[in-house]
Amino acid sequence: MLGIENSVDRVHRDLVLGRFYYNFLWEIKDARVMTWILSSVEPHLVLNLRPYKTAAAMWNYLHTVYNQDNFARRFQLDSLCCPSSACNQQARSILDEATTRL
Q1: Whole-prediction pTM value?
Q2: What average pLDDT score do residues 30-40 get?
Q3: Is it the case that residue 64 has pLDDT exceeding 80?
Q4: Around 58, how many Cα atoms within 13 Å sit in the side-chain half-sphere?
């Protein structure tokens, strides 16, 4: 009987250690991605990301605040241009580039 209990305890211990190791590796990778995000954004945005404890939470915040769908961006670019031939050439080229990506 004692041998079976030791085997069960050993298997349980291995499962617990495996989960601990997996969580440890995940935390390392998450910290690495958080570092990439923090080093990729403008310095004034870093303070807004401080409350978030995971890279996914940071990413979701940035996506929620700064994401624009293509229609909103196209409207924004359209509003920069007027329909006449006296349009701002730079704004027109940006609009053309954006519409080709749609």
Answers
A1: 0.54
A2: 95
A3: yes
A4: 23
What's the one-letter identity of residue 23?
Answer: N
Between CA 68 and CA 71 the distance in angstroms is 8
Q: Which domain holds residue 91?
A: 69-102
Q: Say yes or no: 61 and 73 in one domain.
A: no
**What is the distance between the alpha carbons of residues 27 and 32, in angstroms, rounded to a whole number?**
9
The verdict on 55 and 81 lying in the same domain is no
Q: Which two tokens stand for residue 71?
A: 């229609």
Give the span between the Cα atoms of 86 and 63, in whole angstroms: 36
Helical residues (DSSP H) of 1-102, grouped into ranges: 2-40, 43-49, 55-66, 70-80, 89-101
Say if residue 52 is in the same domain as residue 102.
no
Are 37 and 49 in contact, with CB atoms under 8 Å apart? yes
85 and 50 within one domain: no
